[in-house]
Amino acid sequence: MSKKYTTGEIAKLCNMSVRTVQYYDTRGILLPSELSEGGRRLYSEEDLRKMKIICFLRETGLSINSIGDLLSEDESSSVISVLLDQQEKILKEEMIDCQEKLAILGQIKRSLKGIEDFSVESIGDIAHIMKNKSKLKKVRMILLSTAIPIGIMEWSSIFLWIFQGIWWPFAFYTLLAIPYTVWIFRFYWKHVSYICPQCHTVFKPAKKEFFFARHTFTTRKLTCSCCGHKGFCVETCEEENKKDSH
């Protein structure tokens, strides 16, 4: 005679609550094989095996409805394969999302290491910079893609003048460099703004101050138009700022 299990026993063997076993019963997902004379639910060895399968499927993230549909199929192997494939896809997408969030958290932590007394505003500045990072990178790539050919031609003309005495290419590219310099200055000024480290305001400096200010690859020494702080301010993308201001 095969062993019979009560609701409490099958719950303990499957590491779940009695209430969950009863819930599966009311949903028709796992019905007891029989009832005792006193009306107690009794489960067979086959029921126990089925319950372990249900627990496994729940751990993969499948919904109760999906498991119910699956167990109602006569030939469930193909359905199991499709459901598991779908769940695998969902879990991979969630994993990628988690990895991206971890990468963002890592960048924020690295950025905060350089700030002695960071605040919520400091984190906001970092988030703002990271949000606009790809746009700012695109602006800088446009500058490089135009500046490099101009620079190559200019240096080539200098070598021609020095080693072969041909001076007119140098004169030509010098004249070409003047309007290019004006354009590149206006283009860059138009597409960038700066974050004040003191009041955390995003502002755009005057063209004259922007042109003559000391700068690094990511900062520029400016006077904040909001609080008057003078120091190195962090560069960010103007285009995104306009969108954020609406």
List keywords for this structure.
three-stranded antiparallel beta sheet, 10 helices, single chain, four-stranded antiparallel beta sheet, elongated, disordered C terminus, 246 residues, alpha+beta, 11% strand
Strand order of the largest sheet: 5-4-7-6
Strand share of the residues? 5-15%
Q: What is the N-to-C succession of helices and strands?
A: EHHEEHHHHHHEEHEEH
What structural class do helix, strand and pairing data support?
A: alpha+beta
First-residue to last-residue Cα separation: 75 Å
User: If you compute it from the alpha carbons, what radius of gyration comes out, rounded to the nearest whole angstrom?
Assistant: 34 Å
Number of strands: 7
Q: Estimate the helix proportion, in percent.
A: 55-70%
**Overall body shape:** elongated
Furnish the topology, listing elements before pairings:
Layout (H helix, E strand, L loop, with lengths): L4 E2 H7 L4 H9 L7 E2 L5 E3 L1 H15 L4 H8 L5 H36 L7 H12 L1 H32 L3 H24 E4 L6 E2 L3 H6 L6 E5 L6 E8 H8 L1
Antiparallel strand pairs: 1-3, 2-3, 4-5, 4-7, 6-7
Helix pairs in contact: 1-2, 5-6, 7-8
Explain briefly what this protein structure is.
This protein has helices at residues 7-13, 18-26, 45-59, 64-71, 77-112, 120-131, 133-164, 168-191, 207-212, 238-245; strands at residues 5-6, 34-35, 41-43, 192-195, 202-203, 219-223, 230-237. It is an alpha+beta fold and 246 residues long. The strands form two sheets. It has a four-stranded antiparallel β-sheet with strand order 5-4-7-6. Strands 1-3-2 form a three-stranded antiparallel β-sheet.
